[in-house]
Amino acid sequence: MHFYDKIKDQxxxxxxxxxxxxxGTAFGHFIIKECFNKIVDFDFDGQDFDEFITSHIVDGSNxxxxxxxxxxxxxxxxxxFQFKYSQNSSLLNTNEVLKNKKFIDWILRLSTDNLSPNSKxxxxxDNEISEILTDEALKNNEYTIAFYYVDRTFPTHNVTDxxxxxxxxxxxxxxxxxxxxxxxxxNDLYDDVEIxxxxxxxxxVHNEYFVKEYKYFDTEDTDLKTIVCSIQxxxxxxxxxxxxxxxxxLNVRYFKGENEINSKIKQEYSKGSKSNFWILNNxxxxxxxxxxxxxxxxxxxxxxxxxxxQTTKTLTITVNDLPDEVHILMRLTKxxxxxxxxxxxxEIATSSNNQNAIGQRDLHSGDRLQRTxxxxxxxxxxxxxxxxGEWTTIANKVKFKNPFGRNPIYFKINNTxxxxxxxSFSYKFPFxxxxxxNLSIQRNITATFFNQEVNEENQFYKLLFAYRVTEKLNLLxxxxxxxxxxxxxxxxxxxxxxxxxxxFLQEKLLRLKEAREIKDLINQMDFINYLxxxxxxxxxxxxxxxxxxxxxxxxxxxxxxxxxxxxxxxNETWIPKDTNNWLKKDGTYKQIIGQVTTYLVQNx
Length: 604
Description:
Elements: H1 3-17, H2 23-34, H3 49-54, E1 68-72, E2 77-83, H4 94-107, H5 119-132, H6 135-140, E3 144-150, H7 156-165, H8 167-172, E4 176-181, H9 183-191, E5 199-216, E6 222-232, H10 233-243, H11 260-269, H12 277-280, E7 284-288, E8 290-294, E9 297-301, E10 304-307, H13 309-318, E11 327-335, H14 341-351, H15 360-363, H16 368-379, E12 383-385, E13 412-414, H17 415-426, H18 434-445, H19 456-480, H20 493-499, H21 515-522, E14 531-532, E15 538-539, H22 543-569, H23 576-584, H24 588-602
Parallel strand pairs: 2-3, 3-4, 7-11, 12-13
Antiparallel strand pairs: 1-2, 5-6, 5-9, 6-11, 7-10, 8-9, 14-15
């Protein structure tokens, strides 16, 4: 899915919310919040970032070529943005940029033009820019102008023309940057994880280090700088206690408890001067924004531990006192491109040799879709279990406690369960046994549920809807399994979830014969209409849904009865195992769709 298609629905909701004239202006708001906020210091220290953005969006009549303009007073930096929003075309041209440059010439007093900025732009000039561009600052060039141009693509001739327009700034000693962001770069930023800020120090073992500078080769080369060193375990333990989980935003796993592997880590820690820990343990793989080494002190900006979470957590949780002789091997990499952090860190996570194997669910736990689901559920006091061991790190579990009783004790949703429900309902992919579930998780959930090429708002509602339907049908099965033999099968749950889609297609039952047809129609639904966001996204379906599903169950039972009668005619006995084998057999689901839809039509 192209970046435009991925975000267009979210952009469209911003337009009326902030009374913007069109989606193009709203696009600027969206990109500042969801992309540039991760890499640009806007010098914002307030509470409402959306309001802050709105006050600096100046797009409109007499904007002088500026769509948005911000000022970082501490850095004496003026940030100028132009956004072009298009599905198919590149819209930025030299005339647009020339208007932009004329404005900058004017505020730098390089031009005698008499410009008339609109009221919003005038407020930014009077209240913020004027504090930067004082007479002294202009005289000594104590400021920087940063231009951010955003368009679908940037043809080479466009870039050449834009650069030429600013050539005289170099001659005049004006400090300026020009940055180009096409939709591909924005997509990388959009999917990237926002790394918690920190400035930390680690003590390394004297002279036990080397530094290497190299490139990460991809569609666009990225400069990397890595230091490989031995660090004192005590300094790491102190650091993790201070920073807590903020150091593990990009780590694909949490501490897995006192398992066999982590017990061995603990044993080696405890041996002190006779420990073999340095050679037996894989150590820590980390990334950062920058690092410097001063007298055996490694000073790091925005440290993230990508691999080695088990090592680090065991060190801080299960070991009380550490001898100074315990050292840990660490590889720390500075990534120059902020848009490549998630991609490169994920490559590190999967390629490194790990004590505890990484599963697909853990690997994708930091993806944007997973983070969106986590936040939306957290806002309504539901814990989203997207990573092994994450629940054990939650200090305030009371937030998620069920106030109505003990079943369940806590409101929790596991992302694997969410994915299985989604596949059964939306993709007509029922699976029934452990081996098949594992296979489906690897091949299907990774390709669909963890798909980054979707609109996460829409995907969230699809996933929650399928999950809530599953909950409702599990209860229906439990209440009626003594009445219907078909419900006593351990393989029936996913079939019921898949067939529940027929409720929304009742007018088309006569024509539905293939699972693919149902899938295509179901994916056109607007699932938000069936969920109540004010009640933990509970299902809003009425009793008509239950009535319909009871008809489906009767249709399934009739299909089973016919199979049993056929076997009895051959003087054979049908046993419960036969029901499971039938439901797991290739082709059964297609047969069920045909027979159940026929039953529903004949028994309205």
